[in-house]
Automatic annotation (TrEMBL):
GO terms under biological process: CENP-A containing chromatin assembly
Taxonomic lineage: Eukaryota, Metazoa, Chordata, Craniata, Vertebrata
Top-level taxon in the UniProt lineage: Eukaryota
Record bears the keyword Cell division: no
Gene Ontology cellular-component annotations: chromosome, centromeric region; nucleus
Alphabetic keyword roster: Coiled coil
Name of the molecule in the record: CENPP protein
Coiled coil: 6-33
Pfam families listed in its UniProt record: CENP-P (PF13096)
The keyword Coiled coil appears for this protein: yes
Length: 190
């Protein structure tokens, strides 16, 4: 038993000696790097860093101002959701390709418009030319619960072909609003 304990201690001592050796090497490397800079340069860097951090704290608003701004944004979002009927439940964005003047992102979006759930997947190609940005939607895929209305599936197919998100959201908003009215009317007669 004493041999096991002494072996454990020896292993621990060896591990600590190795760690001390690594830390000594790092210290020497850092000391050599610091000799490349003069004392004046080091003081100048410290002062500029202190100035930056003081400038950052001066530029931030107080927590109460940020809280008020957050509440205002939440109120605006709530109003827009109530006004349009759109309630987005999730959104994910993944950058597929990025160059100096071209970015391709894949978006997934899900939510409800009034009581109709929907999911969208599409790629957004953004190109920048001479301070002008243009965006093109491609590979649009719309998933909605199947309804009895064949016109909805035709509309979804046509929208996917053309990649017209604005038309989709406008039409879905109107259709979902009237769908709710019809549903309430039929419930009234049941």
């Amino acid at each position: 038993m004493d041999e096991d304990v002494s072996q454990d201690y020896e292993n621990e001592i060896q591990a600590l000696e190795e760690e001390i050796g690594l830390l000594t090497e790092k210290y020497e490397d850092m000391r050599q790097e610091s000799t490349f800079f003069s004392d004046e340069e080091i003081l100048k860097a410290i002062k500029s860093l202190q100035g930056e951090t003081q400038g950052e704290t001066k530029g931030h608003e107080s927590p109460s101002d940020l809280q008020a701004q957050l509440e205002s944004l939440e109120t605006d979002l709530s109003f827009l959701m109530e006004f349009t009927g759109f309630h987005f439940t999730s959104h994910s964005k993944k950058t597929v390709e990025k160059t100096q003047n071209r970015t391709v992102q894949k978006h997934r979006l899900s939510g409800k418009c009034h009581s109709l759930p929907f999911q969208l997947e599409f790629q957004l190609l953004e190109m920048q030319n001479d301070e002008k940005v243009s965006a093109v939607v491609s590979d649009l895929s719309i998933i909605m619960e199947s309804r009895e209305d064949s016109n909805v599936s035709k509309f979804v197919s046509r929208t996917e072909e053309h990649g017209d998100l604005l038309t989709f959201f406008r039409s879905l908003s109107t259709y979902a609003e009237w769908y709710e009215h019809r549903r309430h009317t039929f419930l009234h007669f049941k």
